[in-house]
Design goal:
single chain, mainly alpha, 0% strand
Length: 87
């Protein structure tokens, strides 16, 4: 409200907690709201992709990877390995 943008890094621990507890969809909903306000970073994407893979939602994980690439963020090797493992 006061012109300050939220930092994605401040939300990453919450994303990690939610994903580790089977609530990746909830974490992604928060993430998408933050994206609208300009807050996103590669670790956020990686955490959500990991969560979706662990929960067997590989299509959702792939869609996040595509979005990540469109935003010109570079996934790390672990992210690709998770997705390949889901094939």
């Amino acid at each position: 409200k006061d012109g300050c943008k939220p930092l994605a890094a401040a939300y990453n621990p919450m994303f990690e907690y939610l994903c580790a507890n089977g609530k990746t969809r909830q974490a992604e909903n928060v993430f998408r709201q933050l994206m609208k306000r300009g807050a996103q970073d590669p670790p956020s994407y990686t955490t959500l992709i990991t969560g979706h893979c662990r929960e067997g939602r590989f299509k959702a994980a792939y869609e996040l990877l595509v979005l990540m690439l469109r935003r010109e963020f570079v996934p790390d090797l672990d992210t690709y390995e998770l997705l390949i493992g889901g094939l």
